[in-house]
């Protein structure tokens, strides 16, 4: 078989390969996104203008110490990057106990996170706005994209 049949077969394979590439690209965008750091609240870990790769994740996937991106509770409408200091069931960190009105030995309630900036002097975090709902979670920082 030659001629039009081979050309049609080659075009069909090319079309399938293009669709597969589009599907993989779409899936990657649903799983990962790039976020640019604004501000100094995460210095020295991340600096203004650095870009990070964020893997979309549920609250159940977050571990204390990981850096996460969440919808800012105050003011709404922007994203913030902070370190997860405690997840549901963990003891409430001392430095945020007053902000969340936690009794000594209290635990982080289900569905919530405690977030802290690495630069406490310049960070609006759970010390200021208390617990953050897991529904605000965008994902976990996987890696820095530029050095």
Secondary structure topology:
Layout lengths: L3 H28 E5 L14 E6 L10 E5 L7 E8 L7 H7 L11 E5 L9 H4 L2 E2 L3 E8 L3
Antiparallel strand pairs: 1-2, 2-7, 3-4, 3-7, 4-5, 5-6
Key words describing this protein structure:
147 residues; alpha+beta; 7-stranded antiparallel beta sheet; Umud Fragment, subunit A; 3 helices; Mito_IMP1_subunit
The name of the CATH superfamily reads Umud Fragment, subunit A
User: In terms of structural class, how would the helical and strand content be classed?
Assistant: alpha+beta
Number of strands: 7
Order of helices and strands: HEEEEHEHEE
Shape-level CATH architecture: Ribbon
Helicity range of the residues?
25-40%
N-to-C terminal Cα separation, in Å? 54 Å
**Low-confidence stretches at least 5 residues in length (pLDDT < 50)?**
6-13, 18-26
- Overall tally of structural domains: 1
Write down the CATH topology: Umud Fragment, subunit A
User: Roughly how many Å is the radius of gyration?
Assistant: 21 Å
Shape: globular
Membrane topology: Single-pass type II membrane protein
Keywords: Hydrolase, Membrane
Subcellular location: Cell membrane
InterPro entries: LexA/Signal_pep-like_sf (IPR036286), Mito_IMP1_subunit (IPR052064), Pept_S26A_signal_pept_1 (IPR000223), Peptidase_S26 (IPR019533)
Describe this structure in words.
- The structure is a single chain.
- 27% of the residues lie in helices and 27% in strands.
- The protein is α+β, with helices and mostly antiparallel strands.
- It has a single domain, classed as Umud Fragment, subunit A (Ribbon), CATH 2.10.109.
- Mean pLDDT is 85; it is low at 6-13 and 18-26.
């Amino acid at each position: 078989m030659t001629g039009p049949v081979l050309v049609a077969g080659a075009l069909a394979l090319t079309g399938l390969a293009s669709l597969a590439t589009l599907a993989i690209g779409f899936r990657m965008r649903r799983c990962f996104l790039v976020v640019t750091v604004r501000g100094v609240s995460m210095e020295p870990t991340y600096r203004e203008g650095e870009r990070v790769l964020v893997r979309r994740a549920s609250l159940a996937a977050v571990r204390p110490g990981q850096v996460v991106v969440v919808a800012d509770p105050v003011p709404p409408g922007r994203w913030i990057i902070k370190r997860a200091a405690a997840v549901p069931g963990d003891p409430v960190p001392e430095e945020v106990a007053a902000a969340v009105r936690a009794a000594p030995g209290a635990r982080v309630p289900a569905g919530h996170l405690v977030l802290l900036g690495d630069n406490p002097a310049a960070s609006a975090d759970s010390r200021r706005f208390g617990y953050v709902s897991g529904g605000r979670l965008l994902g976990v920082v996987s890696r820095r994209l530029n050095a």
